[in-house]
Structure formats: structure tokens, C-alpha cells
Amino acid sequence: MGFDIFFHALLGVITSGSFVFVLIGVLLGLCFGIIPGLGGTTALALLIPITFSMDSLDAMYLAGGVMGATSFGGSITAILLNTPGTAPNAATTFDGYPLAQQGRAGEAIGASATASAMGGLIGLVTLMLFIPLAKEIVLLFGPVEFLLLTILGLVAIAVSSRGKLLRGLIAGGFGLIFAFVGVDTVSGHTRFTLETDYLWDGIPLVPTLTGLFAISQMIELSLKGGSVVTERVNIGNLTGLWQGVVAVFKHWTVLLRGSLIGTIIGAIPGLGGTVASFIAYTSTVQSSRDPSSFGKGNIIGVIAPESANNAKDGGSLVPTVAFGIPGSAETAVFLGILVLHGIDPGPTLLLENEREVYGLIIALTLSAVGASLIGLLTARWLVKITFVNVNILVPLVVTISLTGVYVLEGKPGDVILALVMGIVGYLMIRFDYPRLTLVIALVLGETAERSFHQSLMISDYNIVGLITERPQAVFLVFATLLTLLLPALRKRKKLN
Amino acid sequence: MSNRIIVSLSCAAVILFGVGTATADWPEKPIKFVVPYSTGGGFDVYVRAVAPEMEKILGVPVVPENIPGAGGQKGAATVYKSEPDGYTIGIFNVPGLTVPPLLGKKVAYDLDQITWLGNLAKDTYSIAVKADSPINSLKDLCSLGRPAKFSDTGPASTSSVTAKISMSLIDCPMTNVTGYKGSSQTIVAAMRGEVDATLKPIGSLRKYVKSGDMKFLVTYENKPSIKGVSSSRELGYNEFEKLTLYRIVGGPPGLPKDVADKLADALLKAANSDAVKEWSTKSKKPLDPIGGAEASALMRDLSVFYAKYKTILAE
Fold this sequence. Notes:
The structure holds 2 protein chains of 2 kinds. Chain A is mainly α. Chain A has helices at 2-15, 19-34, 40-51, 56-81, 93-101, 105-130, 134-140, 143-160, 165-179, 205-224, 238-250, 252-266, 272-287, 300-316, 318-323, 329-340, 349-352, 354-382, 390-409, 412-430, 435-458, 463-468, 471-495; strands at residues 182-183, 190-191. Chain A contains 23 helices and 2 strands. The longest helix of chain A is centred in the last third of the chain and has 29 residues, at 354-382. Chain B is of the alpha/beta class. Chain B has 12 helices and 10 strands. Chain B has helices spanning 2-20, 42-58, 73-81, 99-102, 138-142, 158-169, 183-192, 202-210, 257-271, 274-282, 292-307, 310-314, and strands at 31-35, 62-66, 88-94, 115-130, 148-151, 174-177, 198-201, 214-219, 230-231, 244-251.
């Protein structure tokens, strides 16, 4: 079974020199994660040409090291600067940054490191338990289920923006409009491309995220002046860090729920870590007894998204081991590395390339733990970032993140888009519109539209009929209804 | 004073000499090999397999450069617009790039003007259904009493075009469910039973047949290559075998003949080298190298062939 192969291979890595590739991957992943605008996909894309001359197993170690470390790295900037280092860390800013402003950055980083490591491990254990069923799981989810899942995600937007429902819906609406730009995959016509072929493939995600989160935050910071933490408070002491570590185990139900949501969303091709951590966050807020404490520095608000965005790596390998289908942008690059090594991903991937698949799983495991350890050890120096004067901080972050945007595809248009989105993002901060809602709608909109058309064609224009004959689809309909009705029901109970 | 004149004269001489011998001494700097798709894709791996061998033959680096976007059109346009100096060549998806202009789409390239250097491989198409499907032949698929459902990535993809043309040739009613991300997902769609069949290259489907998930109905070729599966020629559909995916290499319009010949020669030698052959067997990627002259003739034929089906494609 999976686990003995796993332990056997694990011993192999530790005793051979290959461990160094995992370590290089972890360090690279941390750096690419911390810097806004750079992320796991960029790191892997830049590494591909280098892996060409490496042994395929070593290439897996390197890739796994990178993949497992980026999302923790990204949480550091999310907490300290309110700028998610990678997109899946966006939800971490909600409570992580208020914690940093209160001088509790050490606690937040401790919680994020522990939640990342534990989430990553839970995701991978779940993956290994379900490897024998991977095929069945993938076959269970067709276009109708994808459609219902995206609706569930969009409903979460409404639920998450308590008090600011209208603003949330407006931001989400803009996200959906942006999602329709580009070639329509059903009719083949181009839409809203403003006569430039730059927009043919739609509004690209990485420049949009960099603009909305990093550039906009830098505009905000530079207009405000000073540094992130204005009062001299005693931060960076290790007790804070330790409190964060303990908090994760104290709130183990939050950890478990976040990890499971992450694993499930990770297994759905096209959704990815941003949606996973967002849904983990909203579901945690929703099920909390004290929802009003979120957004003001509740440590649970860091644990939920951080466990989810690391657990998604395990989940995204489910469709990969079943059929050679990538579950996330990173696994797509991983499959690209395999293809370059003459391996053809398909339904027999696990049978014929067990070595590489388990190599990746091991690297991910080691990376999840290693990155967090490095994070915990260096946290006391990292938190000093919050005292850096914005005159130094802002130009640095803007230059590096725009370079990162350009490097990924080499398109000048991406840099312009990031700047435009930066201004949009700043206006959204100023007028108090939720930026993450826009991004979630942008990500979900594409899948929603595509699977809606597919469902129509598959069911001969009778979607309801198709839903009722599939139990898994009916289940998702109920889950959506429950998400919508739960807050109302709870309110009534309180009144009684 | 005179020193300065001598310096400028010698500079001018060097420049003139350099220009004058640009074609005679070709190649003297790295050659860019444009791949219009991302790293790790079908076209990318062919270029990455052939480039090192071309490098050995030509004596200068041959550098693959991925320029993805707009379904391969961006990379094609880059090669089309580049200087015809022999330092930029690219791989093209045919008929993927042949069809958009036929449908009246504005494109930034003209395949009829490209200097063709050779073809690396062709992918033979086939139709497959779920392994336990009651459909056992092309005839079964066409007599379901309703249009047969196919799955594909986009309506302009090479396999979509092939399915549309071939099914209309035999008056087989079909609906094409598009929007799947990647060819594996279109095959899984058939396994889930949401579509009846999928048309994909034999190479993509073979692994799913081997794993017992799918079964072949027909292959688009003149003589059967898979035991027990009829070829389209056997069924009497002679036009089907022309519907093939070509991985064809070309340079910008107006490439000087001596440079084009050297490039075509190096490409053919590289594709026939032992290293590339070994890669082909190991990674199960078919090779079918043809030279520059044959490639040009093939492209002329294909542009006439696909133009015939303009009305079918426009539907």
C-alpha cells in the first residue's frame, strides 16, 4: 500500500544526497512566496529549463520543495504588510494584518507556520488514503458538479461580506464581468478584447492579483507614510510565537475543517488555493459563535486559510494520480516537467511512474514541515519588516513584484495590467470594497460559465433533470442552501 | 586626425563585411526556435528533442522560446513578422492555424507565405468510447436516434475541426461539447458518460485503452495500425486520412534559399538522428520527418483541402 512505499522512499531521500534538492526547493519556494507578485508557478516555470538536465526524481524533489513552501512564505507578507505574497494568502490578511498592527505578528506567524505544516500533512495523508479511489472520485465530479461548486463559492461571497453585502456583491459582479473577457470556449468568439490580442486569453490572474493586493497596498502605505506598526510595541519575542503554535492545536477543529476544505477544493481542477482558503475562512467565520471578532485580529482567521492553502497541494494530486490531469497551476507545471523527461502523464501515471509521484509527495511533506521550521526560526527577524520606513519598503516591493509579473510570461501588457489593477485596488481600499471578492468571482466565473454551457449541452437543455439524477449534485444543492440559510436560522435561534 | 579616419574606416569595413557575409557565413549566432505553446506541451517536447541535435549539426545554439497565447496564433505571428535572416524559426500547428483565417478571423500571419522547412510528426486521429459503452462501431455512434455527443477543448481546436468535417462527410449528426481544459479531460468526459465519444490522436487515447477505460472505434488512416480496429480507409472513407495534425516547422516569408536549405537539411538530419529516434520510442511520440520541399507541397495541398470545408466549419 501507499504508506510503505512512502516510508521506503522517504528513507531513500534522507540517506541519499537528493535531500539537498528538497532544501534548495524549500528556500526558493519561501523566497518566491514572500515576495508579492512572485509565486509557486513563477518559480516552477523558471526552474523547468534547469530540470531538463536533471534526473527526473531530483526534479520532483526540487518541484515539491518549491510547491510546499510558497504558501507559507506568502503568509509572512500577508501578515506583516497586508500584502499576500501569493494569491492563496489573500484571506490570511483579514486577521493576520490586524494582529501585526496590534504587535502580535509573532503569534500570527507562529500560527501560520504550524497551520501550514499541519494542513500540508493532513492533505497528503488524505491523498494517500484516497489514492486507491482516486479514479472514482474524479469520475464523480462532472460539469454539473463543477457548476454547483462554483455557485457554492459565489454564495460564500454573499455570506462572507456581512454588513457589507451590497459592496461585496458589486465587487463580485465586477469580478464576473472580468471573467468574461477573452475567447469564449464554447462559441470561439472573442469578447471585450478591446481589439488587442493581449486580452484573447482573458484577464490573466497573476498580474491582476499583484495589482489588486500588492501595488494597491503600496499606494495606500506610501500615502499614509511611516511604517506598518506606528507605535513602538514589544514584538518579536518568542513567547508570542509559541502562543501561535499552541493556538493551532487548541483550535484543532478549525485546523481540520480548513485542511479538509483545502484538500477537496484542491482536487477540483481550475479552482485552486485562492478559492480554497477563501471558503475555509468564510466557513470558519460562519460557524463561529462570535463572528464579529473576525477581521479584527482573531487568530482562528489565520489558522483556517493557512491550513487550507497548504492542504490543497495534496488534493490537487488526486486528479493527477488518477488520470494525469493537473489539479492546480503548480501541478500543471509538475506534469510539464514529467513530459520533458519523456514521461507521458495519463491513467497509468501512478503505475508506471510511482517513483516520481511518491518523490513529489515526499518532497511536499518535507517541504511543508521544513518551510515552517525555517519560518519559526527566522520569525523574530522577519517581524522587523513592519518597522521599515515606507520610503524604503514601497519602491522595493513595487519593483520586485512588477519584475515578477513580467518574468512569468514576458508580456509588457501584464505590467500595465498590474498597474491598472493597482489603482483599482487602491480605490477599492479607499471606498471599502472587498478586493478578494472580486478575485474569487474572477476565478469562479470562468469555470461557472464553461460548466454551465457544458451542462446545458450534456443534458439537452434540461439541467434540473441532470441534477436530480445525480446524488452528488443533489448533495451540493443542499450544501449551498444550507450555507445561505444558516446565518438566518442562527439569528432566529438567538432571538428565541 | 588621420588616426580617427583609419579607425572609422576600419569600423565601416567591419560593418560592411559583416553585412555582406551575413548569409554566406550563416549561421554565426544562436537560432531562436519559437514554440507557440507553453513548456511541456506536445509541440514543446518535439522542439526540445530536436533542438540539441540541430545545434550539433549547425554549430550554433538552437534555443527553444515559448511564446504561448491565443491558441498558438501569437507564436505564429512572431515567426511570420521576424527578419528573414535564418535566426528565427518556429513550429506550427496545422490545421489549428489553417482554420481561423478560413472562418474570416483576423490573424497576424499568412501560412501561404511562410517558408516551410520540414515536418516533424503527424498525429493520426481516432474515435474512442467508454470501454463498457454499447456503441461498438462508427455506425452505432451515428444511429443513436439523436446527435452523437463529442467532447473537446475549444471549437477551433484541431480535433474539433476534424470531428466536424469528418462527421459531416458521412452525414452523421453530432454535437460538440467544448470547454474542457486539456485533452485528458475530454477523454475523462467520455468515461463519465456525459458525452458519447471523443476524437483525439491515437497517441493520447492509447493509454486509456491500455488501462481498460476506453475502446477505439475507428482510426483515421489508410491501413489499420491497431489490431482489431478498423481504419477509415477500410470503412470506405478515403478523405478521413487527410485530417491529420501536423507539427510542421517554418521560417518567415522571404527566407533566402541557401539559408532555408541549410535549415531544412539540419532539421531533417536532426529528426532522423539516433538520439531523437531513441527519445521517440521511449516517450511514445510518433516521428514522421519530411524535408522542406515535401512540406511546402503538403501545405499547398492542405490549404486547398481545408478551404473546401469552409461552409461546414462556419456552422
